[in-house]
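User: Thanks for the earlier help. One more: Opioid growth factor receptor. Can you show the sequence and predicted structure together?

Assistant: Of course, both are below.
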Amino acid sequence: MTIGSDKGMMTIGRDEGMMTIGSDEGMMTIESDERLMTIGSDEGMITIGSDEGMMTIGNDEGMITIGSDEDVMIIGSDEGNRTIGCDEDVMPIGSDEGMMTIGSDKGVMTIGSDEGTMAIGRDEGMMTIASVERMMTIGNDEGMITIGSDEDVMTIGNDEGMITIGSDEDVMIIGSDEGNMTIGCDEDVMPIGSDEGVMTIGHDEGMMTIASVERMMTIGNDEGLITFRR
């Protein structure tokens, strides 16, 4: 394990994974057999990849990308867009001049701001915002975007909002300003926050916590823990 400040980094590695966290110009990386996550500031990015998927989040000029076998999701700012695609559907979201599109076999849904438009279709009928297995909500400022299915949910908000991607046993939340980021699986959870935020990684009965400003780090596995405070 290596921890540094400013241009430094923190690295935690285990059998098949490693984690690197840096501040300012640094980055954070969590890697396991089939997953990779990198977080940077300013011009940085967040990347989560598995066998066939990856997720990247950047600031300002950055973007968010989630991809699996046949789908991909990209989010950009200002002139950017977000795209979720699978075999026969695609959904891009942009601001200002942007738009959002969700399509299925024969349907398409497009939402744009300012000069945008909105259309919803599925097969040859209508596609509801909320159904038994899917829900999508889009708001501004205090709003959020939510896409959920039987066992997963995704929420994206601005300012006070958050991004949430969850499946049966994992959840990921990213917020700005007062927000946080959480990635959890069966018995572990990892939240990351800015300013007054906190990062926590837990496994089985252990946990690791990193907080900025107060700068605290706790690492535990099974029933033990180690704490570093700066």
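User: Great, one quick takeaway?

Assistant: The longest strand covers residues 27-32.
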